[in-house]
Amino acid sequence: MAKRRVNPNRMELLKLKDQLRTARRGHKLLKDKRDELMRLFLDLVRTTADLRIRVEDLLDKANQEMVLARATMQAAVVESALLTGLPPLQLEVSEVNTMSVISPVFKLPSAGNEDETDADAVKLALGSGDLPYGMTSVSGELDQAIDALREVFPLLLELAEKENQAMLMAMEIERTRRRVNSLEYVLIPELLELIASITMKMEENERGNLTRLMKVKDMIVEARLEQKKQAKLQF
Amino acid sequence: MHKVGVIGDLDSIIGYRALGMTVKPVTKPDEVLDALQLMVDEEYAIVFLTEPLAIDSSVQSFIEERRQHRIPAIILIPSAKEKTNIGKEQLRGAVRKATGIDLLGDIR
To answer: What residues of chain A lie within 8 A of the CB of B17, using their CB?
Structure first.
């Protein structure tokens, strides 16, 4: 371990002890944060994984429908049918803060009705049930394909939100764990060692001082005795 | 308000146009990066990317780097053509990174 040089005096000792207190408190807090993050993360990841499996299944089905649709029509017809119409899909993005992990929340814009449900919002955003192309040139398979996609859409939105949050959380957990570890295995032991060495040096100084005093006292006593002896001899 | 984009091979993504998403058909990794960058610049809320395109390492590092930012959320979806499991793998990777253990082993 890289050793820091410090002056062995009380000022330093006080400072270090203060640092140690702060480090310990920080360590405890970070540890709590990590544990709580982990708990939330595991819940989130489980639901996300389930959701992903569901979405992938549904998307596979939608893809199959689409393949069928494209098989029954000319490619140009499909493309031109899908090219037209619809205003671009817009989402409202807000933020949610879970344990200092800030992640976006996606919401379909609502029409402003109070008793509006999510399903209504989906309908509104995706063009209320009507398909964005004429009936004549397009086969029914395409309708089914689009319907399948529309059905997945709310789930897809949820997946995007949750998965994104899970990824962000994973990063935060890793960061927090690093900080916990560096406090636990580097900073705190280093401080303890420094404090111990300062205390030891100070005790050593104290002992040195004591022996010096004793020695000085001995010398003074000896000098006094000598004086007395001299005085007696003179009489 | 933010838009939603889809990047992938035309066959897999054309249907999303009917949902009002911005559809960007691509084939090469370079095009993927360009399309992604464009959608990042235009502040899309979500970008869906078909899985086979995320195999490329430059695309992967781009996604990894974008994670630091709030939006867009880049989410992988299966393509019509090949079946890869990168989406699930990514989630699994996140779990491994966070916990140090592969906890999702039981969920396929």
So the answer is: 82-83, 86
